[in-house]
Amino acid sequence: MSADEQPILQLIGLHKEYPGAVEPQVVLRGLDAAFARGESVAIVGPSGCGKSTLLHIAGTLDEPTSGRVVIGGRDTSKLTEQELARLRNRNIGMVFQDHHLLPQCTALENALLPSIVFRDSAADESPKDRAMRLLDRAGLAEHAHKLPGQLSGGERQRVALVRALINQPDIVLADEPTGALDRETARRMMELLAELHREEKATLIVVTHAREHARMLDRTLELRDGTLVPAPEDSR
User: Fold this and answer.
1) Helices 107-117 and 127-137, axial angle in degrees (round to 10)
2) Residue 103 to residue 155: CA distance in whole angstroms
3) What mean pLDDT comes out for the span 82-102?
4) Domain ranges in the chain?
5) Mean pLDDT over residues 212-228, rounded?
6) Core vs surface per residue 23-62: b (16+ CB within 10 A) or e
7) Cα 113 to Cα 130: distance, rounded to the nearest angstrom
8) C-alpha span between 174 and 234 (Å, rounded)
9) Can you tell me the distance from the alpha carbon of 179 to that of 173, in angstroms, rounded to the nearest whole number?
């Protein structure tokens, strides 16, 4: 990232703690980080160290005890609930370990859900056309009209990825997106994530426990003692 290029996402002095029986449980300790437009970053660390908490704060699904999250130059703490909801829907795509698909909706309908809330009238293609193109890119065109219960675990996660991309977000946050998949399906899912991130030019941040998956991305950060540091083996 050049010196004059503004990061798409800045985490500034993030501190997060939870009440404890004797003393507060501190998860984040003055964490600072910046993420460039279009880059891909893995966040690794032991279970329970706060990786998911960090991702939820970055995605404005949770609030820090103190500190700021700045997205596209906008301090999210200064936004109204309506402005924050619009920013979250338009600028951020989320993929979780559990796909969170609606069981009564088809793969195509699930993929389209965020576009119902917000539609970019200036977009080159309709939401349905974009959803079908992305489903096809994910190898799911023939499953577009199937319900989640008729899909495999890997297929459901790919639908969730298409849903995260439907509004052409600036940032895609993925929280252990392969955690519930077998080894080979997980590898293919990560390869698809990395490929679509490059094609869509979105910033991709993935929380993962798998170092082999982390190596597919541009750089790797480790959450250690409440702060982010370059992972030891990451020499890029």
Assistant:
1) 140
2) 14
3) 93
4) 38-49+84-230
5) 94
6) eeeebbeebebebbbbbbbbbbbeeebbbbbbbbbbbbee
7) 13
8) 20
9) 15
Structure tokens at 180: 């519930």
Q: Is pLDDT of 165 > 90? A: yes
Please state whether 168 falls in left (phi above 0), alpha (psi between -120 and 50) or beta: left
Q: Rounded to an integer, what distance in angstroms lies between the CA atom of residue 138 and that of residue 202?
A: 17
pLDDT bin (cut points 50, 70, 90) of residue 97 is confident
The size of the chain, in residues, is 236
pLDDT at 3: 47
Helix (H, G, I), strand (E, B) or coil at 178: coil
Cite the DSSP H helix spans in 80-152.
81-91, 107-117, 127-137
* Residue 196, CB-side half-sphere exposure with 13 Å CA sphere: 29
State the fold for domain 38-49+84-230: Rossmann fold (3.40.50)
Which of 120-129, 139-148, 168-177 bottoms out in mean pLDDT, i.e. has the lowest? 120-129
pTM beyond 0.85, yes or no: yes
- Specify the 3-state DSSP secondary structure of 167: coil
Token reading at 21: 């029986």
Determine the average pLDDT of the residues in 30-42.
Answer: 96
Three-class SS state of 192 = helix
DSSP for 43-84?
EE--TTSSHHHHHHHHTTSS--SEEEEEETTEEGGGS-HHHH
